[in-house]
Amino acid sequence: MNPLLRYALLVTCALAALFVLAREVIFHTRIVAPSPPAPANFTVPPVVSESTLLVTTKISLPALAKLADTKIPSPIEGSKPDPTDLLYDDNFDYSVQRGHVSIAGKQGHLELTMPIEGGHATLSGRFGAHGVFKVLSVPVSGTIKPIRGHLDAVMAPMLHEDWTIDPNAKLSVHLQTCNFQVKHVGTVSVCNLLTKEFEKHKDKYIKQLNAFLADTNVMRHRVSDFWRQAFISRRLSQEQPLWLVIKPTAVFVAPLRAEGNYLNVAFGMKARTELYFQESSPENTSTDLPSLGIVANPSPTLDLTVPVGIDYGSAGQALSKELSKHSIDVGGSRVRVDDLQLRSAGNRLLVQVRLTASEGWFRRTTVSASFFARPNLDRNAGVLSLTDIDFDLTTRNYLLRAAKWFLDPILLQQLQKAARLDLRDFEERSLEKARSEIRKAKANLPNKVDAAVDLDHITLSDVRVTPSQLYVVAEAHGAVSVVLDEIPVHE
């Protein structure tokens, strides 16, 4: 290269460097605003949702029939005075030998059949004049012996709030010989008389059954055991202070339905799910099983909260990258974002930002300052943004003197508008995390308990500021059904 040309090039580069240096030294102002004081300790509020578990179990009808055999006496005996208006001084006596009770389910109801295999029924009294003319009356009687036939009962049993059971039974008696032929009187229905008597026995047996249920309370104990086991406190991460707490709040039952050899029982159990952001285990004391509620058709719903953490460094870098795409016109100056960092400040974010305002070719001002903002989640768009920008009083007063343009409403509005973080890829991560937690929960189920969980979809629902991370909270929606082992029936 020509020495003269080389010399000229070196001089030109030196002048350019001097120009840049002079512009940086002479025309570039750097302002660092004081940082606000560290916020006081703040308790992060839990994220709360509610789900309804469908809990099903069953009772063996052959076992229930065997229990009925032990509770219903044989023979069934009784006496009814004045059973008919056709006679006076009349009495109805009966003694019925029964066979084994059978119970089956049909179209949702219970059908009980009890064969009548022997015994007698006698109606006796007087027909004719009363009082002083009683001597003119005629003694009459009629007997059916042996009695053959069967007793049927159609039942739609229902549990009550106090866990007693109402069979809602409708009885009918069918005999091979159903009527007395009483001389001078006519026909008297033995079937009607026995049905009325068995109705009284039915009421007595129901009282005995409820007393038995109160003593043994097998069904209530089974549900109560599951109720206590449903109070769960689980740490979700050893590295992060995250706790999932489940608290049952109510239990209700649908009308009992019988099919084939089983009486099917469907309970609904409401449970409150709480997601805590703390080191210590939250309090979660089990309560006694409440009174039963009654519903026509309990429907299972699952709303499982799933937290996904974002460290503040990554979130700040992502927002800084997004903001660097924009320049903002403020009073003739072009303002750009050079850097943005996030950290927690109680229930808000402390945004540490470095802005540079350029005025013409030469003059530039770089301001480093911090302000508070609240994270806002647009659930529909899946976008995290900053809202409610606010300055510490000391910082605001300093900027009013040193860089008033930093407080310009247009600048702050544009910063809020441009600071957006797309979180839609977190939905898939949240769904997989929810499935992982469900697999862990199913692996820890007690013996003789099975669960089926269907996740339909997942939505981003909330955001929480914690000292260590920013958490995006997703809700996994679906249904959960729990099957308990068959309830034993015994004396």
Give a verbal description of the structure.
This protein has a 15-stranded mixed sheet that branches. Strands 1, 19, 20, 21, 22, 23 and 24 form a seven-stranded mixed sheet that branches. Strands 8-9 form a two-stranded antiparallel sheet. By secondary structure, the chain is α+β, with helices and mostly antiparallel strands. The longest helix is centred in the middle third of the chain and has 27 residues, at 190-216. It has a domain at 58-218. Helix content is 26%, strand content 47%. The protein is rod-shaped and about 150 Å long. 24% of the residues are buried. Residues 14-27 have low confidence and may be disordered.
Key terms:
alpha+beta; 15-stranded mixed β-sheet; 8 helices; 491 residues; 47% strand
Q: What's the gist of this structure?
A:
By secondary structure, the protein is an alpha+beta fold.
Distance between the termini: 113 Å
Structural class, please? Answer: alpha+beta
Shape: rod-shaped
Could you tell me the strand content as a percent range?
A: over 45%
pLDDT averaged residue by residue:
81
Model regions low in confidence, pLDDT < 50 over at least 5 residues: 14-27
Per-chain topology:
Elements: H1 3-27, E1 28-32, E2 47-60, H2 61-71, E3 76-81, E4 88-98, E5 102-127, E6 138-144, E7 149-155, E8 158-159, E9 165-166, E10 169-175, E11 179-182, E12 186-189, H3 190-216, H4 218-229, E13 232-237, E14 242-253, E15 257-260, E16 262-277, E17 293-294, E18 302-310, H5 312-323, E19 327-330, E20 333-345, E21 348-359, E22 363-378, E23 383-390, H6 393-402, H7 409-418, E24 420-422, H8 425-443, E25 449-465, E26 470-484
Parallel strand pairs: 1-22, 2-26, 14-17
Antiparallel strand pairs: 2-16, 3-4, 4-5, 5-6, 5-7, 5-15, 7-10, 8-9, 11-12, 13-14, 14-16, 15-16, 18-26, 19-20, 20-21, 21-22, 22-23, 23-24, 25-26
